[in-house]
User: Fold Sarcosine oxidase subunit gamma from Modestobacter marinus.
Amino acid sequence: MAELLRTHPLEAWSTAFGRLPDTVGITVEPFVAMTVVRLDAVGQGAGALLGVELPTAPNTWVPAGTGRAVWLGPDEWLLSSTTETPEELEARVRAAVLPLGGSATDVSAQRIGLRLTGARVRDVLAKGCSIDLHPQVFGRGSSAQTLLGQAGVVLLALSDAGDDHLVLVRSSFAGYLADWLLDAALEFTPTHDS
Assistant:
């Protein structure tokens, strides 16, 4: 029996992303395990059991081992890990939150990560995102569930300079968003006349 190879939904866009200038870099993030946590009682020792204090301030994220913990709502977080399998992450998180009345659901296949870097990244994002991305407002540790173009995304600020962002988009919208980002970055791409 032949083994199936895992391919990334945005593999076909890698060449186009590679042609962008340093001022607007777009790279496809490697696959990471992701689990959504639902938990009412954050203050009841969940942080000690999970190995990270879940952010309680709206629209924030914190480092969590090799991944991140992203606030999605008053009782909902997205946890990621670059070293655990989806099954390992879900099992570990579930074991920690189940005694507290919480739940954990593997959503690893749900979202694709795109890393946007460079001096003009905020200009590209501003073409299709209505939130204020100025670094004084949306600096490292900030996150937002918003629209980018016509796609719902989770946007994370990875730097205080406003030149490094992570966009998490549903896998089914990844191709659309990749095309949209390439189009939005077009004015910052030098043209090559033949």
Notes: The chain has two domains: 11-30+110-186, 33-106. The chain has a mean pLDDT of 90. The domain at 11-30+110-186 is CATH 3.30.1360.120 (Gyrase A; domain 2).
